[in-house]
Amino acid sequence: GPKVLQIPSHQIIDMGQMVTLNCDPVSNHLYFYWYKQILGQQMEFLVNFYNGKVMEKSKLFKDQFSVERPDGSYFTLKIQPTALEDSAVYFCASSQTGVISNERLFFGHGTKLSVL
Amino acid sequence: GDSVTQTEGQVTVSESKSLIINCTYSATSIAYPNLFWYVRYPGEGLQLLLKVITAGQKGSSRGFEATYNKETTSFHLQKASVQESDSAVYYCALTDVGDNSKLIWGLGTSLVVNP
Fold first, then answer.
1. CB of A55 less than 8 A from some CB of B
2. Is A102 close to B47, i.e. CB distance below 8 A?
3. Which of A21, A51, B55, B100 gives 20 to 30 Å between its CA and that of A74?
4. CA angle, corner A4, sides to A16 and B92, nearest 5?
5. pLDDT tens profile B55-89
6. What is the rounded distance in angstroms from the CA atom of residue A95 to the CA atom of residue A103?
7. What are B31-61's pLDDT values in tens digits?
8. A28 in contact with B at a CB cutoff of 8 Å?
9. Would the CB atoms of A95 and B105 count as touching at under 8 Å?
10. C-alpha of B49 from chain center
C-alpha cells in the first residue's frame, strides 16, 4: 500500500545545533502532519500543513520549530536550535483530503532524534 | 481534558485464544468524539485498523472488533481467536468529528501472541 518514508531513522546531534527531519509523503497526498512521542509518553500532535502553510499547531510546536515542503519534495521539520527536551521520536503522516473529513492518516516509521 | 487511557502496556496471549485490549477515553471538550484503533506491526509504520464515528456502533477489521460505548466511555479492542501475525503494538486514539489531524493517543499496548 501507500507508504510514507522518513529519513533518517535515527539522528544524533549536539544541543544547540540545527536538525532537519525529512518526510517523503504519499505521492498524491496534500495534507501533512508531524507528531512527537517522548519515550514512555503518548504520541502528541505538533502541526499540520497544507498548500504551503501551517494550518494548525499545538503548544508543543515551539518557535524553534518550522515546517516546509519546498518544490513539492520532502516535507521537513526543522528545529533550530535544538534543546535536550526535543529528544523524541518524530512521526510524519499524510492524507489526501485532510481535516474536513475522517480520512485515515498514513504514517511513517518515525525518526528518533537524540539531542546530547 | 481530553485523553485516552490504555491500562496494559503489554498483553501476552496464546495463539487461537481470545483477546481484549482495554481503552477508555475522556472527551470533555469534544462533543462528538471519533474513535480509532491504529496498529504498528514490527518494522512497519502506524496504520489504521478500524474507526467508529458514531456512539453505539461497532467497527471491525481483520477479525478485530471494537464498540463505541458512550456510557462507559470505552472502546475496547477484541478478537475471538488471535494469530501469531497479530503481534504488534495497538494504539487507541480519538479526535473531534471532522478533524482527523489532532489525534489524541493512548500509550499503546504491545500484543505478543505465542505459538
1. yes
2. no
3. B100
4. 90
5. 999 999 999 999 999 999 999 999 999 999 999 99
6. 7
7. 888 999 999 999 888 999 999 989 999 999 9
8. no
9. no
10. 8
